[in-house]
Design a protein that fits this description.
Length: 128
């Protein structure tokens, strides 16, 4: 079992993707930075933040799984936002597509980790 959320590969991947997505979104046209750009930044942040919050609740298996599912849903939302960016702004389509593919891979990793937690996670006894 990992000692910290930062030891989890899904955390590391989601953090790196958040940074890349944030930087990418800041290249959008000014009016879009605060519309679709803001949405993609928030959903990318949510992927990462829900892993962290879930890990903080890892003692309670159901809560841990719940937050991992939230993370996976935010991952899907981020993919959808990136698809919109690529379709609306052809000049950003290639970079949006690369990020989409990275989020698709992360989604598969999240799914595998959720299945691992469901099948193998042992809750820790609560301390008095």
């Amino acid at each position: 079992m990992s000692q910290s959320y930062s030891d989890l590969e899904i955390y590391q991947q989601s953090y790196d993707l958040f940074l890349a997505t944030h930087r990418f979104s800041m290249q959008l046209p000014k009016h879009e930075k605060y519309e679709l750009g803001s949405q993609v930044r928030r959903s990318a942040d949510s992927v990462n933040s829900n892993i962290v919050e879930g890990y903080g609740r890892r003692r309670y298996k159901r809560e841990f799984i719940r937050y991992l599912v939230f993370s996976q849903a935010s991952n899907d939302e981020t993919i959808n936002h990136l698809k919109k960016v690529g379709d609306l702004y052809p000049q950003f389509a290639q970079e949006a597509g690369i990020l989409e593919q990275r989020y698709i891979i992360l989604g598969k990793q999240l799914n595998r980790f959720i299945q691992y937690v469901i099948q193998h996670w042992k809750t820790q006894p609560t301390s008095p």
